[in-house]
Amino acid sequence: MTEMRYPLIFMLAVCLLSGCNLFGKPESLPPQPIAQTEDYRLGIGDVISIRVYGGEDDVTFPRIRLNDRGAMTLPFGDFTAHGKTTRELETSITSELKGQFLLKPRVWVNIEEYRPFFMQGQIGRPGAYPYHPGMTVERAIIIAGGFRDRAAQKGLLMIREQDKTHTKIKVYANTPVGPGDTIIVEESFF
Questions:
Q1: Could you give the CA distance from residue 57 to residue 148 in angstroms, rounded to a whole number?
Q2: Which CATH number applies to 47-113?
Q3: What angle do CA 90, 91, 96 make, to 5 degrees?
Q4: Between the CA of residue 18 and those of 8, 9, 10, 13, 189, what are the distances in Å?
Q5: pLDDT per residue over 31-79, tens digit each?
Q6: In terms of CATH architecture, what is 117-187?
Q7: 120, 129, 136, 103: which is closest to 30 by C-alpha?
Q8: Which residue in 130, 135, 136 sits closest to 173, CA to CA?
Q9: CA 68, CA 115: separation in Å to the nearest integer?
Q10: If you ran DSSP here, which 8-state letter would residue 7 be given?
Q11: Is 127 strand, coil or helix?
């Protein structure tokens, strides 16, 4: 009996030290990314590439930056990408090409560069930074050079890009950041 007790105690200690949760309740849920490629909505400043298959030669349009209306001009038409997923844009381009230019076109749209998120306030290097799926407030702060000495580390605010009222909301380290969002680190008075 004593021989079984020590391995059990050792396993329990290893489990506790490694942070495993014996009771099945998560201590905190991992932050969910704001933008997966499948459901990411294109917007002003995103850079995409487009490949068209189905003709004699495949055609590629590399590095197209969406203009200030979230649109682009291709040799076969103007397209609005703002607010669409890559799949929706593929469908739109395919329907324009089908019959008029190609019999069975296949279109592939890829996001080459996401529009940036922004950092303001008591942060090492305020400015615009490239967005990456899975971005959190904590990662954004690290990328922007960390907190300044007078930063209110618990006074973190965000303005979401899609919020047309520009309302500042309180956020935390694991809050997901989306492209176009602005994170504001306030000054501490203590």
A1: 54
A2: 3.30.1950
A3: 100
A4: 15, 14, 12, 8, 38
A5: 444 445 578 899 999 999 999 998 778 999 999 999 999 999 999 999 9
A6: Roll (3.10)
A7: 136
A8: 136
A9: 12
A10: H
A11: strand
pLDDT tens per residue across span 99-130: 888 899 999 999 999 999 999 999 999 999 99
With left for phi above 0 and alpha for psi between -120 and 50, is residue 180 left, alpha or beta?
A: left
Dihedral (CA of 96, 101, 103, 106) sign: negative
Type of residue at 31 = P
Asked whether this chain's domains 47-113 and 117-187 adopt the same fold, the reply is no
DSSP SS3 for 37: coil
Amino acid at 117: F
Residue 155 CB burial class (10 angstroms; 0-12, 13-18, ≥19):
middle
- Distance in angstroms (rounded) separating the CA atoms of residues 127 and 166: 18
What DSSP line would sit under 57-76, residue for residue? S-EEEEEEEP-TTSEEEETT
Backbone φ and ψ of 176, nearest 5°: -65, 145
Q: Domain spans of the chain?
A: 47-113, 117-187
Total Cβ atoms within 10 A of residue 33: 17
